[in-house]
Amino acid sequence: MNCSPLTANERLEKKILSRRRFLKSGGLLLTVGVLLRTGSVFAAAERQLRDAFQDDFLMGTMIDPVVYLREGSELAGVVAREFNSLTAGNIFKWDHIHPTEKHWNWAHADAFVEFGEKYRMHLVGHPLVWHAQLPIGLFDNPAKPGQTPAILTEKLQQHITRIVDRYRGRIHVWDVVNEAIAEDGNWYDNHWYQKLGPGYIASSFRWAREADPAAKLLYNDFNLWDERKRNKTVEMIKFFKSEGVPIDGIGIQGHMGLNYPDLKELENSIEAFSREGLEVHISELEVDVLPTVPIGEFPQYRSELDPYKDGLPKEVDQKLAQRYKDIFSSLIKYRDNIQRVTLWGVSDDRSWKNDFPVPGRTNYPLLFDRNRQPKRAYDAVIKLK
Ligand code: G3I
């Protein structure tokens, strides 16, 4: 088991070793070499995020197929230049990679891994078990009613084993279970929970470990700065430790806004998970600048909910930069505990935040603008180093 509590020094030593091993495996030099060979050289900014934070944490981004399938594109160039860790946004989700019982869709996942390896990226597989983006019929197939817990358990085990085994030694980190805890601090009442009880979570970690003993295994969730979710996560970690269930870290997703969360609460969660001896990964960071709507509501598009469709006013852009600066200041403080910080996308035009929770809005949540240029927020972050 990998989760015995470490002293602060042991943790720091382990983390520095693991990051150095990765960076010094030649990643950066080889990446430049590949860029030169493929002719994908862009006017490099003076410093890149990954270099600026190399003593702190890995700098990652989520990508979608448009990046790894269009290698010479400007977007792919930004990715190769700025980041050293990649997460695939959707292609490992069950409905994509395993749409029917016998059908596996490997092409995208293979292409993602090959792209990542070519640029010597640290690779994150996301997610193995989730309640969303499941194929129709996995739980309630009218043609085959009565899925027993035993059948579902076997399906889940096969799903995890087959994927993790295929990328054994190539994907460095797995989001094994995603979003299993509800806002009230109870288990999220999803199909897995209803059919199998909470035991599906521990089993999933065990199967993932068996399939690739070297991969880091994370529990990944949003709003983990909320006290109720934090406490439930710590309770789960303690239970895992007592039962010998393998877990290496917690992915704090990091879907934030200009005014939420209180960064003190984020820091409390980083401390709480670190106290249990786990790595912390900030796995899906972005900052929403648009008017918020109550959680769980999905209003129709209305122009008053979309105030910046013609451009972000300078004062809001400054607020965004300040917010990113504050967030990264907190993260740097905890750099001994944080292994990786991943932005949930590269440039504003491709963010899911343009369509969630209100479709068709114009949002500005990331570090690169719609022309793939670094924003004021990028400068604010990089100037911290
Ligand atoms: O692939 C289909 C395409 O064939 C179809 O034409 C198109 C029409 O809408 O939809 C495409 O699928 C979309 C998919 O993204 C790929 O683009 C889905 O509709 C859309 O719902 C899906 O959204 C994803 C979302 O998860 C929903 O599961 C976002 O891209 C993705 O960024 C987001 O990521 C999640 C993390 O996995 C977990 N944490 C929260 C985060 C944000 O919701």
Q: Using only CA atoms, what is the Rg?
A: 20 Å
Overall shape: it is globular
Number of helices: 13
Q: How many strands, what sense, and barrel or not for the largest sheet?
A: 8 strands, parallel, barrel
Q: Could you give the order of strands across the largest sheet? A: 1-2-3-4-5-6-8-9
The ordered string of helix (H) and strand (E) elements is HHEHHEHHEHEHHEHEEHEHEH
Question: What share of residues are in beta strands?
Answer: 5-15%
Structural class based on helices, strands and sheet pairing: alpha/beta
The molecules bound to the chains, other than polymers, are: ligand G3I
State mean pLDDT (0 to 100 scale). 90
Give the termini separation. 36 Å
Number of strands: 9
Contiguous uncertain segments of 5+ residues: 1-9, 28-45
Helical coverage, percent range: 40-55%
Describe this protein with a few key phrases.
about 15% strand; single chain; globular; about 375 residues; binds ligand G3I
Write the layout of secondary structure elements.
Blueprint lengths: L7 H31 L10 H4 L5 E6 L1 H4 L5 H9 L2 E4 L5 H4 L9 H12 L3 E4 L23 H18 L6 E6 L12 H6 L2 H13 L4 E6 L5 H17 L5 E4 L2 E3 L5 H13 L3 E10 L25 H20 L4 E6 L32 H7 L3
Parallel strand pairs: 1-2, 1-9, 2-3, 3-4, 4-5, 5-6, 6-8, 7-8, 8-9
Helix pairs in contact: 7-9, 10-11, 12-13
What report would you give on this structure?
The chain has helices spanning 8-38, 49-52, 65-68, 74-82, 94-97, 107-118, 149-166, 191-196, 199-211, 227-243, 263-275, 314-333, 376-382; strands at residues 58-63, 85-88, 122-125, 173-178, 216-221, 249-252, 255-257, 279-288, 338-343. The two termini are 36 Å apart. Strand 3, helix 7 and strand 4 (173-178) form a beta-alpha-beta unit. The protein has 13 helices and 9 strands. The chain has an 8-stranded parallel beta barrel, surrounded by 5 helices. With 385 residues, it is of the alpha/beta class. The longest helix is centred in the first third of the chain and has 31 residues, at 8-38. Helix 7 packs parallel to helix 9, helix 10 packs parallel to helix 11 (263-275) and helix 12 packs parallel to helix 13 (376-382). Bound molecules: ligand G3I.
